[in-house]
Amino acid sequence: MHNRFYVSDILSEGLIGNEVDLPVILNHVRALRLESASEIELYDGSGASYNGIISYISKKNLRVKILSIKYFKEKSVKIHLFLPLIASNLMDIMIAKIAELDIYSIYPIITERCERHLDSANLSSKLDRWKKISASSMILSGRNKMTEVESPVSFKEALSLCATFDIKLIGAVSSNKFLKNYLLQYLSSDSSGINKERNNALEIAMFIGPEGDFSDEELKLAEENSFTLVKLTDYVMSSFSAAIFSASALVCFFA
Q1: Which of 77, 86, 153, 224 could form a disulfide bond with 157, CB atoms 3.0-4.6 angstroms apart?
Q2: Helices H, strands E: what count in the chain?
Q3: Whether the predicted model's global pTM rises above the 0.70 cut
């Protein structure tokens, strides 16, 4: 259906059979020259879509009757990227590009060699901006589930969040194990379980370091928390490029 529109914080299962005012999408609907009784599809990034018909349209308001809801099957793999805080404009582009891929969540992390630090005064506005960027990328890519952008966490907190994950990787220039080789070995092993029935999704964490890489202490701490150090390529990449490269590789192997 081409008449597909994104709305946030409005939809719920309890709306089925009821009407809801949606002036927020009025301009888009009018641009497509839709009228009363036209069928439309609504989604909010939660992984569900709502089918409905336009019951009323005017110059200032649009009303839609919700007819049904469709839930999309949960992915069997959830990829979580832990990314360094980099220059603001590059951070925005990095999140936008990654959110176009099938990445479950993004965690900005604060490391020893982090380029930038957010104070509490602008953290809320930055996080809100990143979430809007993620929503825009979801719309562009035609996905139904939005990549979650979480609040920045410290390196130690990030490690703790991954305690129960199935695959825990951290990029390290000093490693002699390439990401591609690790993934090929994992998928070919009997322990993979990627093509088997699982009660829970396969959880994957990928940490990307700041310019200058993670410190020796951080890499040691990661190993102590059962992380595997992997090298992305034979050459050195910026944090921005490394994030896009890693996200693409993981999606290629698992999505």
Answers
A1: 153
A2: 7, 12
A3: yes
